Amino acid sequence: MRQRVGRTAGAICGAALALVLSHDGMHAAGPDGPPRQASLTGRPGNADNGRALALARERGNCGACHAIPGAADTTASSMGPSLQGVARRLAEDQMRYLVVDPRRYRPATIMPAYHRTEGLVRVARALEGKPVLSADETEDVVAFLMTLRE
Could you tell me which of 50, 82, 95 has the C-alpha nearest to residue 150? Predict the structure, then answer.
């Protein structure tokens, strides 16, 4: 029994690693956190626009789950980790990886994928095939998150 569990766990880990390695622009996760993803646009994002997107309830709505430094609404949920100092914890390409689709790194997370359109369930017809954030908007949010060093 113990040997079968060990083989099953090994197979699951191997399959997860293969899945991570199969994505374009991504690399396997290392001991320093999530994998890395190259820029979606090849251009730096606009941090001011990213802040507006992150705070907007109808767009990023990051404050629903995360405490955001400097946000007027300080009643943020503690469902997700505080974003205070997040730029000290993650590199820009790791941040992007998590914003695009955090489930690739943590399959059980409740954080939504902001730039993924495939494999989603219970999506309104009007939104099928459309990401929550465009590539430019995703880069803007990443640029904003990278300003949160304190």
Answer: 82
CA angle 78, 81, 83 (to 5 degrees): 110
Q: Is residue 5 included in any domain, yes or no?
A: no
pLDDT digits (tens, 9 = 90+) for 1-16: 545 444 443 433 333 3
- Answer yes or no: is 43 within a domain: yes
Give the chain's domain count: 1
For residue 16, being part of any structural domain is answered with no
Predicted model pTM = 0.75
CATH of the domain at 122: 1.10.760.10
CA 80, CA 101: separation in Å to the nearest integer?
15
pLDDT 10s digits, 44-71: 999 999 999 999 999 999 999 999 998 8
Q: Are 13 and 29 in contact (CB under 8 A)?
A: no
CB neighbours (10 Å) of residue 93?
17
Distance CA 133, CA 59 (A): 8
Q: How many CB atoms lie within 10 A of CB 27?
A: 14
